[in-house]
Amino acid sequence: MFDIGFSEILVIGIVALVVFGPEELPRVARTAGHWLGKLRRYVSAVKADIDREIEAAELKTLVDDVQSSARKLQASLTEQASAFEAELSREVTPVAAEARALEQEIQQSLRIDEAAPQVIAETSVQDVPVVPDTPPDEVQAESDDKQLDLFAAPGELRKE
Prior knowledge:
By secondary structure, the chain is mainly α. It contains 1 helix and no strands. The chain has one helix spanning about 5-120. The longest helix has about 120 residues, at about 5-120. InterPro entries: TatA/B/E, TatB.
């Protein structure tokens, strides 16, 4: 951390022994160790806070990126949905008009069907001409001599 070698630590220890003396040196070393431990904990806490802030900033940028992507996707979906809706309405309008026309035709035919029994009831039986039940006279088919007999034997063909 401070880039201090073994020889430099040895020099610091000798100077501390001369300055504090052998009786006070253990207490001073213990206090210095205590303060050094507090300093290390403080530095590690600050480092952890900085790391958390960096992670929070990274997460915030990530969240912003995801939100902007979501907004773009939503705009794209909305645009596609409106285009689909417009195309669908262009296709449905003629079909709906045709359906309305067919519905009107059906209603008119239903009105005619409802009126049909009244027309039938108004027509009397005496208005209908009577056809006799006797069969018509049998008509004799005239034989045609010019027609070739297909079922005759080959020698029986007539020449005319």
